[in-house]
Write a structure and sequence with these properties.
271 residues, alpha/beta, Rossmann fold, eleven-stranded mixed beta sheet, two-stranded antiparallel sheet, 6 helices, binds zinc ion
Length: 271
């Protein structure tokens, strides 16, 4: 069984030394997963955008990716995201471990529970109409803690809170959209954090992400134009630090879960 899964965002396409590549079939499509040693144990790694960044955010098969991790026995998931800063205090290069999100995506498959499909979660069958709770923690407090502790050990600064707004894309946001997101309470904006976080909860997995601010969002910081090159350039500057945070965080994740994430389906499993 593999305990920890990592979903790498823009800029992270390879994480493991000589990994084993596996294509796993799920009721939601195939997922490509890489297995190998990282941070002292065997983990599963999924490059969210594919190995060559060929999958745009709205085409990522979030359900297949999460379900493939579930098939491997993964209960703990860490993810990375490249984001724009809505809050002007979050300068490019800053690491943020968000504590909540706002999902503004419009055309993605946002749930496993379509009323028909029967899933297998840790040996138990579950299906029907299921509404998981995103409280008291939107993201797993233990995984967030492991990431924060890893950064501290490495002497790297992280911002330990923030609201991640997920935009549909594929284009970057307009200045008016960013102003609206700010009014809604958003701090950072990206295109891949949702529905991934909620899908993990639907499988009773622990999930947290660490975001790298690659740029100011539209209209923030007085910038006129935003380019994808700018995003990748800033990400490449922080990629080594981010990889080291992830590596250390693997070892910081307690073996026993003491967070409530594993109970997300309990009321439905007992029906
Ligand atoms: Zn948890």
């Amino acid at each position: 069984m593999v305990r920890v899964g990592i979903i790498g965002g823009s800029g992270i396409y390879r994480l493991l030394e000589s990994p084993e590549r596996r294509v796993l079939s799920t009721p939601f499509g195939d997922a490509t997963v890489f297995l190998g040693e990282f941070g002292g144990e065997e983990i599963a790694f999924i490059p969210r955008h594919g190995e060559k960044h060929e999958i745009p955010p709205f085409k990522v098969n979030y359900r297949a990716n999460l379900y493939a991790l579930n098939l491997l026995g993964v209960e703990r998931v860490m993810a990375t995201n490249a984001v724009g800063a809505i809050d002007p205090e979050l300068a490019p290069g800053t690491f943020v471990i968000p504590d909540d999100f706002i999902d503004l995506t419009k055309c993605r498959e946002g749930t496993f529970y379509d009323g028909k499909t029967i899933l297998k979660v840790r040996g138990r069958e579950v299906g029907g109409v299921i509404h998981v709770s995103m409280t008291p923690y939107t993201y797993c407090p233990e995984i967030r803690g492991a990431l924060k502790e890893a950064a501290r050990e490495l002497g790297l600064e992280v911002v330990d809170k923030g609201v991640y707004v997920c935009a549909e894309g594929n284009r970057f946001e307009t200045p008016a959209e960013i102003r609206a997101m700010r009014i809604l309470g958003g701090d950072i904006v990206g295109m891949t954090g949702c529905p991934e976080a909620a899908l993990a909860r639907e499988l009773a997995m622990c999930y947290a992400s660490i975001s790298v601010v690659t740029n100011y969002a539209a209209g923030v910081g007085g910038r006129a134009k935003l380019t994808h090159e700018e995003v990748l350039e800033m990400f490449s500057r922080r990629i080594n630090d981010l990889s080291e945070i992830l590596r250390r965080a693997v070892g910081n994740i307690p073996v026993e879960r003491s967070c409530p994430c594993g109970e997300a389906l309990d009321e439905f499993l007992s029906r």
